[in-house]
Amino acid sequence: MSVQGKKPPTKYAIALFPGFQALDVFGPIDILNMLSKTASLELFILAETLDPVSTKTETSGHRVGQCIVPTHTFNDCPDDIEVLLVPGGTGTREYNNIHSVVEFVKKIYPKLRNLLTVCTGSAVVALSGVLDGRRATSNKRSWEWSTAQGPNVHWVRQARWATDGNIWTSSGISAGIDMMYAFIADQYGEDVASDLAKASEYVRNTDPSVDLFA
Q: Which of 5, 101, 125, 163 has the fewest CB atoms found within 10 Å of its own CB?
């Protein structure tokens, strides 16, 4: 049981787009991979098509990149997803890359148990209107651009991650790892999160208000 007295979530999904940031995705995914040794989890990788999705685009400036093969498209994904994670990355700067993610978030959010974003993923979600009137944070090096995508969002600059109801948003890139451990602690218990972090030899930031990059 979660710390709220409910069964913790078991069905997770990641929404990908061209130019996503690798650690935004792989950091939280690795935590879920390790959690799945003791918890029954399902993970769906979503994108506009089933073609491999790369961290690199023609305008990203990267010389190397990695691809992920989706398991489902936004149109044929399971309808019982409980937790959706939206990463950031250089691809967020081109609306053609993220349009399908924005529309998908609008459609699926009412069905979700939790919505998580990493880095400029909060800017993507802000474009959907879901963050209007809520507290959220984003990558501090992209702060001006990110916050401009959601003028009705209560942006919190001094935050490693921020929570508002069932929405969790993190600061830049590596902050998504701290947020995911905090989410695991909230849903599965602090002892579970602590054990997972120790198994990864990771030193957590457990205070969301401490952000050395703000």
A: 5
The closest of 89, 70, 54 to 176, measured between CA atoms, is 89
3-state secondary structure of 13: strand
Helix (H) or strand (E) holding 101, with range, is helix 95-108
User: Is residue 154 packed enough to be buried (19+ CB in 10 Å), middle (13-18) or exposed (0-12)?
Assistant: middle
Phi, psi at 148, each rounded to 5°: -70, -20
* Structure confidence by residue, pLDDT tens digits, 95-154: 999 999 999 999 999 999 999 999 999 999 999 999 999 999 999 999 999 999 999 999
- Amino acid letter at 29? I
For 58-84, the pLDDT digits (tens) are 898 989 999 999 999 999 999 999 999
What is the Cα–Cα distance from 158 to 144, expressed in whole angstroms? 14
